[in-house]
Amino acid sequence: MKTVAILTGGGDCPGLNAVIRGVVRSAVGQHKWRVVGIEDGFDGLLHGLCYRELDLKSVRGILQLGGTLLGTSNHGNPLHYPVIENGETHWLDVSDQVVENFNRLGADALIAVGGDGTLKIAQHLYELGMNVVGIPKTIDNDLKATDVTFGYNTAVGVVTEALDRLHTTAESHHRVMVVEVMGRDAGWIALESGIAGGADVILLPEIPYNIERICQAIQKRRESGSRFSIIVAAEGARSRHGQQVVQTMAGDSRSGVERLGGVAQQVADEIRQCQDIQDMEVRTVVLGHLQRGGSPSPFDRILGSRFGVKAVDLIAAGDYGKMVSLRGRNVGSTTLAEAVDSLNLVDPCGELVNAAEKLGIMLGR
Ligand code: F6P
Q: What's the CA gap between 247 and 190, in Å, rounded?
């Protein structure tokens, strides 16, 4: 009988509970193995050992729930861990401590469910000799080596519904609405929800924007009788003259990662300076963590469940150092090394961008 440990790391994402349930139903229900859930991502393997037994009963009724039963953290990266000494923060590699705690657990394998950061840690632990399998998670859909990550479909649905709602109020008040959505490096959420929600302008991290061209597009719409405009901006979008807009918050000294935020406000301020449309009212909406919360879509429930089952299949075959992935309609696997090699970004010359532009959507250039 094997013991399998599972943890969810990084930002939460709709479908995580479907993955946990898929793992437990397959590992416990089919193989009769033992599954333990590590709490709060890698934190649960760092500060002593925090875990709980996961039996079939413990995963009842969680398929439709957002968040993660196990808790998560995007602060405790064991490869870059903040240790405060004499008031100064030092960043240390404490992965040996993770391996030590994992060995104390007596587990045969670890399933790490997470995005780019979590999977890089997983790859490192695999290189240190741990039996690791990864499952790709992120609403940003920015992971290479899988056609799509679970959570993304739900996020696009949430943003599309928000855009539908914003359309009616923007039109009634003849306003320009700038909607900020998540997407640090990749603009998939902005692009696909923008197309689905009938946005007029979409701004992506991959295409630096030209504010004069955006103002011209808004003015042109007005001249043609549309007295409102909807702009969707990924949080990582930047002007061709500037940098990404950073909004570092107090707690971020723990992660060493800059938090983005404020691009909608920046774009709105820039539009207010445009001569021809100075009389138009410009408002901003930041959708933020609403995109990550709540119930997963049927697509994400199914994909998360399939990923969970596939991860258990890999462990049964002793096939470690792999990440489960979706290619076309099939769930398969790829090496973790390949998965974390580079990010899945929107191709500024690709078919999706091209289609958006042919639909009359302005991409900021
Ligand atoms: O990784 C997904 C993501 O949604 C990014 O787009 C965003 O920058 C980040 O999470 C925000 O995470 P948090 O505010 O929870 O730390």
A: 19
